[in-house]
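Form 7-S
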Amino acid sequence: MELYQLRQLVAFAEYGTLSKAAEMVHTSQPALSRSMQNLEAELGVPLFSRTKNHIALTEVGVLAAQHAHVVVSAHDDMIGAVREADRRLRNFSFGSIAPAPMWELAPIASKVFTGKTIQSALQETEASLIRGLDDGTYNLIILLHPLEEKKSDGTSRYICKAFIREELSVLLPVSHRLAKQKTLQLQDLAGEKLLIHNNIGFWYSVCKQKIPGAVFLEQSELSALREIVHASKLPSFITNITNSANAIPHGKVAIPLSDPEVNVQFWCVCLAENAMEYQALFKAIEGHL
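Output:
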């Protein structure tokens, strides 16, 4: 008895005809018919009732198909579990709500998990990151707040560690009407034309929602955006982290934004069941702060 025969039996039980079942398992109808006859011979019982123009599972055939489904599912689950275990051994994957903490965490993780491939992904919503952590897509995620959910036994579902802070400022030409202000709010930029990168995680939606009537001139290439910012008189954005790597262009000033939504604390979050596995990483993060 071969696994492919069990898949074929399950397909027939699901689709009800040899032609459709053959199509779904990528074989010909005559080949499927012979395969089912061989399966019956090996089991020593008829699984199908056959007439000139009709074929259907017998009561025993239905039972056989149910058991075949269990075997096929167990086989597929085993392959998935083994491959996932191998992926976890070879890779460290994390998702982030913003680019800067992703840039900061990657080199730390590389030093801790020597020999592993470090993979990162940027998301705009925390919900998608939490789903990814729960389903195993990510080993760790970076959020804007800690998760306090409890398991049924009252213990914490997640372990959360404070990471870096990031604070947004608007970059203005010294001749701009707002350039002499000590602080601004996003709404003060209403109606402005603003340069912005379109792959910046949660920052993108916050700026879009909080600046009414603004025209956003979007760039997908970060290097191109930096060149335009240096050459243009249009307002753009900078943070305390990006400012440390890129000096404020000549003739411009960075005005801090006071909105709480753009002065944020990031948190590293993993499943509590994996806390021991990432203990060295959390220690390295503490040393980085």
